[in-house]
Amino acid sequence: MAIKRTKKKKSISEVVSHRVGSSARQTSDKRPVHEERTPPCIAGCPQGTPVREAVNTISLHEKHALSLEESFTRAWQIWTDVSPFPAILGRVCPALCEDQCNRREKDDAVGVNRIERFLGDWGIEHGFKLNRDDDAGDYDEKIAVIGSGPSGLNCAYYLARRGYKVTIFEAFARLGGMLRYGIPEYRLPRNILDAEIQRILDLGVEVRTNVAVGRDTPFEQLDDEFDAVYVAIGAHKGRKLGLDGEDGAENVVTGIEFLNRMNTGNTPDVGDRVVVVGGGDSAMDAARVCRRLGADVTLLYRRTRNEMPAIEEDIAGGEKEQINFIFLGTPVELTLNDNRCTTIKCRKMELGEPDSSGRRRPVPIDEFFELECSFLIPSISQEPEFDGFQSIGANAKDWLSTDDFMEKDAERRIYAGGDARELGLVTTAMYHGRRAADTMHARFRGLPITFGQQPPEIKSDKLLLDYFEPKPRVSVDELDPERRVLSLTEEIERTFSESEVLAEAQRCLSCGMCFECGQCWTYCQDQAVLKPVKPGEKYTFKLELCQGCCKCEEVCPCGYIQMK
């Protein structure tokens, strides 16, 4: 929660005019202190990724006597100490950090996602390795991680870096979970995925693929053999429409199953007219893949574009690729011919009052239309396959509910997270894995369970936005839509160059942390502010000279100085 000021913060011109033009000395008993605040980019990230520290390492590299290349390496180390997948997340994360960025109040958000992608690719290019913690032990406890998606992998990372023995059980042939089997390759190249997974395995994590716990190996066996179990099985089962004939139609495949087939090399023949039902990420992925297979694609969604939960970038991308969007409609009847769906009868909808999701509820009206199709992809939701996990309370209603520490059964040391707990973002799933690993470590070592208490958040009204020059957000050109739909693997955007990532990093306002601008030193008439002796050190105060005029607080652009 942001701390309220008692008065509105002045612009630089107002502060200077008032202080220089006034002959009377204003004094008070207040004295300046440095008080770090949490920037909204970090507060808005489920993982709490240290965006500000990493970005400032790049933007301030000259002040800190670092070469640009050294700053990239140090920023990568800062980033991966919390989040080991910068190259992955730099491509697939919806960038909640940017949605909250204070710079939006001036011009446009800092391109954190593109900076993250650059750092991830930089680390892969230079062969960087993840490290064990300095105080890591050589512990005897063995932990089983069921599922190798982002949640399971992050849990394994945080346990292995501490010195625990971790074994990942994966039902599919390769690691990655939904990252590999649910995201198209043009969004996430497989060499990028493999490189960032391998770094975690290099910490000593054991892997057993093609082992479906609950089917090939009873869950109870792992419960007996291991000291703790983390269940992160993912939601690989698509929900169907529930219409007559759907189960028997060979050309009706759920979105998640369709993407799995594509990502395992079993490309279906979708024909020339595909209908995708849904408005989420998987629906958009399926639709855009089908365009790359050469089909005309219609995406049918029961609400409007404003209510679509898919990432905006992907919706806009689909529009550029000439996907036909039909809103306020839902399938009600399928016409089959030789076990193939040929026509979909749809009912029109209108928006009513908001439902529990906060979006306006779709209400059916007595108007209908028909769509012809060669392939139908319902992509309305998905859920985990819980067969074999009933003994720990997994069910279709509550899934694998846990407490805030990701504990399902504290006595048996059973934990759960990711899509097994709730459908969510990659970063949310990663948070679950990290939280579970922290809880396990605390339980094993008899430590208190603590996690990431952060200083209060700082909002734009605590910043001196006038100080910062307007700078347009750095952008990169996209592949022409007509070209990109010809390839299933070619990325739409390239990674930032070194000069581009520096320019974008320099747009950061460093909310709540000193970036060594020197404003406090320049405007202090009492000479109570001391410059740092070494690069990277903070400005300090000689309080015996301070008269409490509050000038340093008022001219601090990032809100780091507080008068108390």
Any idea what the CATH superfamily of the largest domain is called?
FAD/NAD(P)-binding domain
Main pleated-sheet profile: 6 strands, mixed
CA radius of gyration is 27 Å
CATH C-level of the largest domain: Alpha Beta
Helix content: 25-40%
Q: Assign the CATH architecture of the largest domain.
A: 3-Layer(bba) Sandwich
N- to C-terminal distance: 19 Å
The third-level CATH topology of the largest domain is FAD/NAD(P)-binding domain
Total discrete domains: 4
As a percent range, the share of strand residues is 15-25%
Stretches with pLDDT under 50, minimum 5 residues: 1-8, 17-24
Helix-strand category: alpha/beta
Q: Sum up the overall morphology in one term.
A: globular
Strand line-up in the sheet with most strands: 4-3-2-5-16-15
Query: Strand tally, please?
Result: 19
Please give the count of helices. 19
Mean pLDDT: 93
Fold blueprint:
Blueprint: H1 12-21, E1 32-34, H2 40-43, H3 51-59, H4 68-80, H5 86-92, H6 96-100, H7 112-125, E2 142-146, H8 150-160, E3 165-169, H9 178-181, H10 190-201, E4 206-208, H11 219-225, E5 228-231, E6 237-238, H12 255-263, E7 273-277, H13 281-292, E8 296-301, H14 312-320, E9 324-327, E10 329-337, E11 340-354, E12 360-372, E13 375-378, E14 382-383, E15 407-409, E16 414-416, H15 426-445, H16 481-484, H17 498-505, H18 519-523, E17 529-530, E18 540-541, H19 551-555, E19 561-563
Parallel strand pairs: 2-3, 2-5, 3-4, 5-16, 7-8, 7-13, 8-9
Antiparallel strand pairs: 1-19, 6-14, 10-11, 11-12, 15-16, 17-18
